[in-house]
Design brief:
Blueprint lengths: L1 H26 L9 H23 L1 H26 L2 H26 L2
Length: 116
């Protein structure tokens, strides 16, 4: 069971990395020029952070769990604030998936923590 859970976590972070990579490749580093600079940096840094979380989940369970939870909790919090601040409908759509994964991650983190 923990293999399936780890697969879901890794997949979610790789999907996040692909989304941010697409933005960086099409718009350069800091492509979110519509957002405040700090938010632009945060979203851009999610590319290497998501990749690091996926790698750690594959290699070092506990470090991956800690980094993964930190990323998704902060990401959902920041995105929720910005979505409500700007009324950005596409971000609300993305938040549905992010929030679903956040719930899954919080519920399954103890299983991964005990893994190996």
């Amino acid at each position: 069971m923990d293999r399936f859970v780890r697969f879901v976590w890794i997949g979610a972070f790789l999907i996040g990395a692909v989304n941010h990579a697409r933005d960086v490749l099409s718009g350069g580093w800091l492509p979110y020029d519509f957002a405040p600079l700090a938010l632009n940096w945060f979203w851009s840094l999610l590319l290497p952070l998501d990749l690091a979380a996926a790698a750690l989940l594959a290699l070092r369970y506990r470090a991956g769990v800690v980094l993964g939870l930190a990323i998704i909790v902060v990401d959902v919090g920041v995105n929720t604030w910005f979505a409500y601040e700007t009324d950005w409908m596409d971000l609300f759509k993305a938040l549905q998936w992010q929030s679903l994964f956040l719930g899954f991650a919080l519920a399954s983190a103890p299983l991964l923590w005990r893994g190996r």
